[in-house]
Each structure stands twice: as structure tokens, then as C-alpha cells.
């Protein structure tokens, strides 16, 4: 499989902050400089630039070009990936494909957004006509529908969602780059007692909008060997699904595109969900992670709570989960937030996670969620499996 | 018991319709609910689109009037909203499923917290908007 012929040779990440004072391009430059320092590579060796979409860049149809100019990168392949919160994972997959196709050799994948400081989003979609006039706040409302429906169909033990929130918060406390405001330990009671935003979605179910950037350098395996990189991480499976079951009128909102995306990614990787060393699911809301566990096959549909009850999701547990805090406890860097969980997985597989290092570094799974459609769950689902020195 | 607001006195603007949603809004002037129907596959769809959700074609869509009686598929209580809804929380947004096989979101009128549940039978309540239009809300059937 072609993706296996590529190697992530370095990752970098800025501090995540609420409404920062840095420009989105300055954050991108910070990530790039860090990657060059870590690898000893020259800027001129980078011949591809893949960006995830950014709410700061939204409305500018020349965003990838402008960013290439700002970062002083002359490249042979330049692209932005706009599948919402799935974009960072989507960008990394496309970078691997471009390298395999011979379009370029070394790609800078940049995930940067400063939604808190500068949100330029003006979606040409259904919202202004159909949901804003209802007072719909956006994602929390949609996840309120999904959660109520899940509870109606299967029953729901909210303390199990709280267990996931607590494990992620424990990770954020150990993560210097997590948003400071969130680096305070919580217990399940704090989760259960946090105020309702859109019943039954609570404050501690939800991400906080932040600014931040992360990124990776990915190159061909051949080049990585030639350059003498010994510590690399390779994507060995990827699945992506957009508009899953959208051509059906009535769907079960507890089904998501992670089912087909997960099947594809695991098949390519030659693994099952039970083999995964650490799990880094996209977390805009806590329940999204439980739905993904069910869809990807960690447990059966409708049995998420039972599964959560039996497992330990801390970094030293039997299924480490978003060990740096995830977006919910590290802060969501706008549409670049998916990069936070991706970079954490790479860090773990390289064995560089320090106080929160997981034991099982044989593989990690990262996922993405992108877009909130009308009365459905989400537009895009992605799943990637990575291994060290694959 | 906690009171859930009906949002009726919130000032709403006239609809921001598009070429493909105008027939819906025009029908609301007569408090009629019309829904797009794909004549090729014989199915209704919501919300109004430029294309069929089933085939992707733009050429086989027409508008048909439906009664609008359905049941709640899911709902949420909004407790934090942007202006002009801020300060009017809590209020419901319900996803209602019609027998024609479509799901339509709306605010509610006169449904209490005790009454609201998945499966509740509802029918349209037409709330007045500027320029003679109406907004579709849901009330108990």
C-alpha cells in the first residue's frame, strides 16, 4: 500500500490559547521553524504544502497560495483541504498520496486556525435560512438531538461520558501546550453538574473555541532513510467518508461514516480495533467519541457505555484516549483542532510524550469529524492508523 | 416546573430565500406547507435544495402540499443562544418526522417540558414573519 512508503519525520505544535494575539501566519511560521530545527532540514527541501482549512482563511479563495507566499515556500504541490474538522487528517493523507504519485518528496502539512481572533466564515449553506431563525447555536444543538436520540434508542449512562471527560482532562493537566484555563483536574461529578448548553449537552461535553497551530513534515520513506531519520511514523491505513447515507430521507443519527471509514482504514492496516495501542478520536463533543468506538468496532453498537465502564482511558490505562487532553480539554484550535490529536498520536508513537507516555506504541488511531449538516450527525468521517517505523 | 419559552415575541426578519426555496416561502403566506418531491424516484425531500438528494439532478423536482402532521424524532432545549434569542432561553428546537419521510426542524408553541418527548404527535403552527410570510413552528396535534 502506497501510504506505507511515506514517513512523518517530525511534528510541532504551538500553545493553544483563547483568542490569541498572534496572526495565523505567524503561528504557521512558528510551526515551520520548529520542524526545520528538529529535523535539520532546509526550507528548500520542502516541495509540498498541504493546509487544513481555517476559519480565519475562509472567504479567501487564494488561501493556500497566500500561505505559501507568507511562509516563503516555493513548492511543487500546494493545496488546501476543506472537509471541516476532518481537514488535518485529510491533508496528511493527501500529502502521502502526492508523495507516492511523485508530485513532490517532502510536504509540510500545516494545521493553523485563529477562529477566536479572526473568524471570516460566511457559509453559503442552509444556516441563515433554516437554523439561525430558530435560535440554533450550532454544534451543541445538533449534538443535543443526537444524544437524546441515542438515549431513546439504547439508554445512556451519563457518568460514562463523564469518565471520558475526566480521562482527557487528566491528559491536559500533563500537557504544557494545552489551554491553561482547562488544565484543572475534574471528576465525574463536575462533569455531571456542569451547566446545560443544549440539553442534554453540558458545558463539559463541549470544546472551547481557541487559536493554535500544529503540523508535521512527511517525506518519502526512501528520503527519510537517506537523511538518516531513525524515528519516524507511517500512516498504514486511511478511510474517509463524506455525505454518508445523505441520500436517505430518514437515517439513524447514531450511525456515522466512521463505520465504512474505519473498516477501510483497519483493512489497509491489517489490524482490528482491538489491536490499537492508543486511540485519538476527534472530540468536538464527548458522545462523538463513544459513537466512534461503536462504529469503528471497539465495541458493538449501543454498547458504548458498557465498554467505557470496563476500560481505563488514561495514558497508563488499557486504552489510552486523547492523551494530551483532546480538543475538549486542550482547546479546539478552530478547524485546525484535528491536528492536536494527530500530533499527539505521532508524539506517542515516537516515544516523546514524557510524563504521559503510553506503553503500547505499536500503533495509534486518529479520527476526524467535519461539518454539521441539517438534522444529521456530520458531513465527513475519517480514520487513520499509524505505526512507528512502519 | 421549568417554563420553556415559545420564542414568539422574538423579532425575526423576513426569510433569506434562494431561487430554489422561494416556492416554500411563498406558500407560507397562505399557511401552506409545501415540500419538494422528486418525480423520478417518487420521494419527498427536506430541506429545499437546488437538486434532488436522491439523484443529484435538478430537473425532476416539483412542489407538493403536505398536511404537516408528524411526530418528534428528537429535540433539544437550547439554553445558550446568540442575539436576538439571548435572554429568551430556554426554548425547544424539535426535529419532526412527517409521514412523507422528511424531517423538519422547528421551534415549538405551547409544548411544556413535561409533554415534550420523542414520539410526541405534532402539527404546524404558523408564526407571522414580516412581508406576509410565516415561519413553521410545531404545536401539539
What does this structure look like?
The complex is a heterodimer of chains A (390) and B (141). By secondary structure, chain A is α/β, with parallel strands linked by helices. Chain A folds into two domains: 2-121 and 210-226, 3-Layer(aba) Sandwich (Peroxisomal Thiolase, Chain A, domain 1), CATH 3.40.47; 137-208 and 236-388, Thiolase/Chalcone synthase (Peroxisomal Thiolase, Chain A, domain 1). Chain A has helices spanning 24-39, 63-70, 87-100, 127-130, 139-154, 158-173, 188-193, 221-226, 258-269, 286-296, 304-310, 326-330, 338-349, and strands spanning 6-13, 48-52, 77-81, 106-114, 196-199, 201-202, 211-220, 233-242, 278-280, 364-370, 380-388. In chain A, β2 (48-52), α2 and β3 form a beta-alpha-beta unit. In chain A, α6 (158-173) crosses α11 (304-310) and α9 crosses α10. The longest helix of chain A is centred in the first third of the chain and has 16 residues, at 24-39. Chain B is mainly β. In chain B, a hairpin with a 5-residue loop joins β5 and β6. The longest helix of chain B has 7 residues, at 22-28. Chain B is globular, with a radius of gyration of 16 Å. The A-B interface holds A 126, 128-131, 133-137, 140-141, 144-146, 148-149, 152, 195-199, 201, 246-247, 249-250, 253, 374-375 and B 7, 10, 12-13, 15-18, 21, 43-45, 47, 53-54, 73-82, 85, 88, 90-91, 93, 95, 97, 101-103, 105-107, 118, 135.
Amino acid at each position: 500500500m502506497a501510504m506505507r512508503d511515506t514517513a512523518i519525520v517530525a511534528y510541532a505544535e504551538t500553545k493553544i490559547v483563547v483568542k490569541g494575539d498572534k496572526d495565523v501566519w505567524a503561528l504557521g511560521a512558528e510551526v515551520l521553524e520548529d520542524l526545520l530545527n528538529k529535523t535539520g532540514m532546509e526550507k528548500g527541501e520542502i516541495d509540498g504544502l498541504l493546509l487544513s482549512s481555517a476559519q480565519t482563511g475562509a472567504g479567501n479563495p487564494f488561501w493556500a497560495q497566500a500561505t505559501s507566499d507568507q511562509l516563503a515556500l516555493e513548492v511543487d504541490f500546494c493545496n488546501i483541504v476543506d472537509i471541516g474538522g476532518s481537514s488535518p487528517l485529510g491533508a496528511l493523507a493527501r500529502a502521502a498520496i502526492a508523495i507516492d504519485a511523485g508530485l513532490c518528496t517532502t510536504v509540510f502539512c500545516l494545521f493553523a486556525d485563529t477562529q477566536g481572533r479572526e473568524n471570516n466564515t460566511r457559509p453559503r449553506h442552509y444556516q441563515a435560512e433554516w437554523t439561525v431563525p430558530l435560535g440554533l447555536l450550532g454544534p451543541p444543538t445538533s449534538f443535543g438531538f443526537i444524544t437524546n436520540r441515542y438515549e431513546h434508542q439504547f439508554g445512556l449512562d451519563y457518568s460514562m461520558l463523564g469518565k471520558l471527560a475526566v480521562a482527557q482532562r487528566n491528559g491536559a493537566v500533563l500537557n504544557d501546550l494545552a489551554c491553561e484555563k482547562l488544565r484543572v483536574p475534574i471528576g465525574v461529578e463536575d462533569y455531571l453538574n456542569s451547566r446545560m448548553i443544549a440539553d442534554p449537552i453540558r458545558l463539559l461535553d463541549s470544546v472551547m473555541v481557541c487559536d493554535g497551530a500544529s503540523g508535521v513534515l512527511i517525506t518519502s520513506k526512501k528520503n527519510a532513510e537517506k537523511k538518516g531519520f531513525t524515528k519516524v511514523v507511517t500512516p498504514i491505513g486511511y478511510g474517509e467518508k463524506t455525505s454518508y447515507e445523505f441520500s436517505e430521507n430518514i437515517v439513524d443519527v447514531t450511525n456515522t461514516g466512521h463505520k465504512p471509514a474505519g473498516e477501510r482504514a483497519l483493512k489497509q492496516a491489517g489490524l482490528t480495533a482491538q489491536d490499537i495501542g492508543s486511540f485519538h478520536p476527534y472530540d468536538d463533543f464527548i458522545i462523538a467519541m463513544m459513537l466512534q468506538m461503536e462504529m469503528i468496532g471497539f465495541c458493538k453498537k449501543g454498547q458504548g457505555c458498557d465498554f467505557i465502564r470496563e476500560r481505563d482511558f488514561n495514558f497508563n490505562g488499557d486504552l489510552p484516549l486523547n492523551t494530551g487532553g483532546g480538543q475538549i480539554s486542550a482547546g479546539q484550535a478552530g478547524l485546525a483542532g484535528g491536528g492536536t490529536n494527530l500530533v499527539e498520536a505521532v508524539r506517542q508513537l515516537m516515544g516523546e510524550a514524557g510524563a504521559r507516555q503510553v506503553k503500547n506504541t505499536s500503533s495509534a488511531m486518529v479520527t476526524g469529524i467535519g461539518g454539521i449538516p441539517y438534522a444529521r450527525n456530520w458531513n465527513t468521517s475519517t480514520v487513520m492508523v499509524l505505526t512507528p517505523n512502519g | 416546573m421549568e417554563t420553556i419559552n415559545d420564542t414568539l415575541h422574538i423579532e425575526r426578519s423576513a426569510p433569506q430565500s434562494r431561487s430554489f426555496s422561494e416556492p416554500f416561502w411563498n406558500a407560507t403566506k397562505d399557511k401552506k406547507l409545501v415540500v419538494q418531491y422528486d418525480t423520478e424516484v417518487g420521494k419527498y425531500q427536506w430541506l429545499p435544495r437546488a437538486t434532488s438528494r436522491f439523484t443529484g439532478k435538478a430537473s425532476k423536482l416539483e412542489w407538493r402540499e403536505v398536511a404537516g402532521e408528524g411526530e418528534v424524532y428528537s429535540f433539544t432545549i437550547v439554553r445558550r443562544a446568540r442575539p436576538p434569542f439571548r435572554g429568551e432561553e430556554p426554548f425547544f428546537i424539535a426535529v419532526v418526522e412527517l409521514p412523507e419521510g422528511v424531517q423538519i426542524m422547528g421551534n415549538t408553541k405551547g409544548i411544556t417540558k413535561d409533554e415534550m418527548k420523542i414520539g410526541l404527535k405534532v402539527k404546524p403552527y404558523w408564526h407571522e414573519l414580516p412581508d406576509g410570510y410565516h415561519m413553521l413552528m410545531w404545536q401539539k396535534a
